[in-house]
Design a protein that fits this description.
alpha+beta; Aminopeptidase; 7-stranded mixed β-sheet; 22% helix
Length: 414
């Protein structure tokens, strides 16, 4: 078997092989783009070729930026389009492609790799760990009233008190085709301030590649503008079967703007229920409902998986919110590597280098990926038996050090 890089001339073969691996057929081409594969970077993709020259497996990567704790931006390879034809599974093709890809990413100088896992059992063995989580929130229209608590010291009626902050803006309803540049600009501001968020390169917006609101699928866009008329948030939505209004994503960096957009869609006429597809597990929207039980949580699941390709570089790239020292004994069985590192944090910056000191924690590289963005507490993985704490103070120390000011969240599909 040979694993080789692809070129632009391999696009059709790559797409056909991948669809064959998942037992699907490519959808009908859409005029003006709109196919997810129109954003593929063919110089970053791989084809696994059988001895007779037939393609039997695919693996790809996008060039993203990942927002780390402390609003630090780092390059990250977004692994995608991984598949093996049913005729060649359980023959080592996937392992060979993943090993080849990780080696290539390192050769490019990259130290972080991320993916969305189609199956949770597959990618932990390759060093990836679930790092961000998301959930769906469904609210029946007849129970959708928001009754926010009044601000401290306010004399307002508690049932109609103030929002998270005064909203002096306005909402304009547009069609998706009318506001592409606005969406791109708002999303870019959002992702730079949200840990765990990925960039959406201009090519994605221009090619209409991905899921709504990127794709050509018809969508209404509620654009929020501040008091000066500048756009600072949007909600992408559609009304489907059974009078269900589905919100693809609500993008803003301001809680008051999110509340205003939520109030807009929850107040839509001729709707039986409103579904928010991507809500962070700790988002306050559910608490803002007059009827707390009206918000039904479902599809509570992992989203972004993270792998560290260079432990010292990754740990020194993010910001930290507490001073301290931690010795990490990290095992990377897939790549056959092992290292012990002293992590020293001072004034929000970290230094990380090999050490012979006794470890505070022993952990797999996949578990380090899970705690890296702050979305999974080290103590949770200690209690689960994934991480070994070598003394009683190790767990609370690790929790305090890896804690972040804002929970990571990712809603970009790739």
């Amino acid at each position: 078997m040979e694993i080789r890089p692809t070129t632009d001339q391999d696009l059709d073969v790559f797409v056909d092989t991948l669809h064959g691996a998942f037992g699907r057929f490519p959808e009908t081409p859409t005029a003006g783009g709109g196919r997810w594969w129109s954003a593929l970077e063919m110089d970053r993709n791989l084809l696994a070729m059988a001895a007779d020259g037939r393609p039997v497996g695919t693996a790809g990567a996008y060039s993203f930026e990942l927002t780390l704790p402390g609003d630090t931006i780092a390059p990250a390879a977004g692994v995608t389009a991984v598949g093996v034809l049913p005729s060649h599974r359980r023959q080592g093709v996937l392992r060979a492609m993943m090993r080849h890809q990780l080696t290539e990413l390192r050769a490019r100088g990259e130290f972080l790799s991320v993916l969305l896992a189609s199956e949770a059992m597959i990618y932990r063995r390759f060093g990836y760990g679930p790092a961000t989580y998301t959930q769906r929130l469904t609210v029946p229209r007849h129970r959708a009233a928001l009754a926010l608590p009044r601000a401290r010291g306010s004399a307002d009626n508690p049932a109609t008190g103030s929002d998270t902050g005064p909203d002096t803006g306005s909402i304009e309803l547009l069609r998706r085709a009318e506001c592409g540049d606005i969406l791109e600009e708002i999303y870019d501001r959002y992702r730079r301030a949200q840990p765990g968020a990925l960039s959406r390169p201009h090519r994605w917006w221009a090619q209409r590649a991905g899921q709504p609101p990127l794709s050509p699928a018809p969508r209404y866009i509620a654009v929020h503008r501040d008091a000066d008329g500048l756009p600072d948030g949007y909600a992408s939505y559609s009304l489907g079967e059974h009078e269900t209004l589905t919100v693809d994503e609500t993008i803003t960096t301001d809680d008051a703007v999110f509340t205003a957009l939520a109030r807009f869609v929850l107040g839509h006429d001729l709707v039986r229920q409103v579904v928010f597809k991507h809500v962070p597990p700790d988002h306050p929207l559910r608490w803002q409902l007059a009827d707390f039980r009206a918000g039904e949580v479902s599809d509570d699941t992992d989203w972004l998986w993270v792998r560290l390709l260079d432990v010292p570089r990754a740990l020194t790239a993010r910001s930290w919110f507490m001073d301290g020292e931690l010795v990490l004994d990290v095992d990377d069985p897939f790549l056959g590597e092992h290292g012990r590192y002293l992590l020293t944090i001072r004034d929000g910056k970290a230094d990380c280098h090999p050490t012979d000191r006794e470890p505070d924690l022993s952990l797999d590289i996949s578990d380090l990926g899970s705690v890296y963005l702050g979305g999974t507490a080290p103590s949770t993985l200690i209690r689960a038996g994934h991480i070994r704490a070598h003394h009683p103070g190790a767990a609370p120390l690790a929790d305090a050090l890896f804690r972040t000011g804002r929970s990571p969240h990712c809603l970009h599909w790739f």
